[in-house]
Design brief:
By secondary structure, the protein is mostly helical. The protein has helices at residues 2-14, 16-39, 64-74, 82-88, 92-96, 101-134, 149-156, 172-177, 179-205, 217-240, 265-285; strands spanning 140-141, 144-145. Strand 1 (140-141) and strand 2 form a beta hairpin.
């Protein structure tokens, strides 16, 4: 199994799709940092936002919404289409002559998870480190200055004009301990979720073997649909003072900025993706090898 995983990772790293996804994600993190650097050039350090507020995955970053549009495509590129290439090039019998079908499919999923998570983690971690090296640590946040009334209200959610079940920011104690650790945790969570999403798309490719384009659709449609639903729900909650629950997936990976988050939202989606991926893979493993030729 381990040897098969290593082989698939080597194949992935040599693929042009993986390199394109890495270059795009890495370039995004660099451009976001350079933009913040240019925007704050010549400004008084005491008036600038804190280093940990300038990260590329902050909801206040003007580039973040663009990356959210690209994300559904970036999670597919690293390795999720490789099974279709193996199928079209009639490489499956060759692989199955060397490893079991179980090892082949599991190694494919593992490589997709590792590759996708690695691309996000490296790019965002680099951005986080650069921001902490070049921007001041002055406690100025998007929700207010450190230890000022607006700051506490922003953390606790007492300044919002609508009702929500969980008004305070997620992982509040972690943020109070260290904003850097808080951001680092978000990089890890987003990387893991992206890896899971990439693996899920890989499992879909076990059945949609003849067209790569269809693999780019599921998460793009899902994320755009949820953003529209969330915008409508937010507007209605503000107008009627009703209950608001955030269903925008990307809001759950944007530290400190989003409100109305439901703790179980991302875990439920993750469990669903994992369960669906497991079922799809088990079914694929038990398929007759003749159907794959």
């Amino acid at each position: 199994m381990l040897s098969s995983i290593k082989t698939q990772i080597k194949v992935m790293r040599k693929g042009k799709e993986y390199k394109i996804a890495f270059i795009v994600t890495f370039s995004y993190s660099c451009l976001a940092f350079l933009h913040a650097l240019v925007q704050n050039a010549g400004h008084d350090l005491s008036l600038m936002k804190d280093a940990n507020q300038m990260v590329c995955f902050s909801g206040a970053n003007i580039w973040w919404s663009t990356f959210c549009i690209l994300w559904p495509f970036l999670i597919v590129l690293p390795f999720s289409t490789s099974y279709i290439d193996d199928y079209k090039n009639q490489l499956l019998p060759v692989y199955f002559s060397r490893v079991s079908k179980k090892d082949y499919y599991v190694s494919k999923l593992t490589a997709a998870f590792v590759g996708t998570a690695f691309i996000i983690a490296v790019s965002f971690l680099k951005n986080l480190i650069l921001c902490n090296c070049f921007f001041p640590h002055n406690g100025n946040t998007w929700i207010g200055e450190y230890q000022m009334p607006n700051f506490y209200r922003g953390l606790l959610g007492t300044n919002i004009d609508y009702r929500t079940l969980y008004p305070s920011i997620p992982f509040l104690r972690v943020y109070l301990f260290s904003p850097f650790v808080y951001n680092l945790m978000y990089v890890l969570l987003f990387s893991l979720f992206s890896g899971l999403a990439g693996s899920f798309i890989m499992s879909l490719s076990f059945y949609f073997k003849k067209n790569k384009i269809i693999l780019f659709a599921p998460f793009f449609i899902l994320t755009q649909l949820l953003r529209v639903i969330d915008a409508q729900a937010f507007s209605k909650a503000v107008e009627t003072q009703g209950l608001y629950s955030n269903v925008n997936i990307f809001a759950y990976f944007s530290p400190l900025f989003s409100k109305g988050l439901v703790p179980l939202f991302v875990p439920v989606i993750s469990v669903f993706l994992l369960a669906a991926m497991t079922c799809l893979t088990i079914h694929a493993i038990h398929q007759d090898i003749r159907s794959l030729q």
